[in-house]
Amino acid sequence: MSLLEVQGLAVHYGGIRAVKGIDLQVEEGEVVCLIGANGAGKTTTLRALAGLLPAAAGSIRYAGSAVTDLPVHARARIGISLVPEGRGVFPRLTVAENLDMGAYSRRDRAGISADLEHVYGLFPRLYERRAQTGGTLSGGEQQMLSLGRALMSRPRLLLLDEPSMGLAPLAVQKIFETIRLIADQGMTLLLVEQNARLALESSRRGYVLEGGCIVHQDDAAALLASPKVRAAYLGA
Predict the structure, then answer these.
(1) Domain total for the chain?
(2) 82: domain CATH number?
């Protein structure tokens, strides 16, 4: 049984069919990426999986249960967490307060304290900036904070939307080092990333979206070697 199983998912914006009946699966402990051009439906797919957008058709199953009609807060409570495009930190809250917001639905104080130490261990810069407001952080630091806040909910499935967007190369390197470390620790990840090569190099499998449809899927290594994928998305 897949941790995440999506069948026939369609998502509409008014009269626009942004996602047109896609199927995908993510196994427990697996890193899977969605790649494609801007407007292909990648972010829309993640937002629908997180519950931020309604499904016009199809089904979403998580850990064996149907979650298609669950609201976003209910999905978060059962372990589905989204790190959104554009980071979405609370600019007037401190780093520590932002991280606390990630654990808003939890009551296990000892576990929250342990997870906070874990996040600070992953991102020492956040510990250094813990009393600083989120809006005063650099882009890379805000991405660290967004990822750390998601981890504070103790997710079982982490949805990552464009984690490298707008970041300097060194910040991108640090974020993806941490993503790989989290994956090595057993986290299940579904990744949308504009840098297709980086996404595939960080994943076990990948799906290619075009015009709201999945047009290709394979092991990441096979997609990296595919002449069509290389020509369309890897600049080679």
Answers:
(1) 1
(2) 3.40.50.300
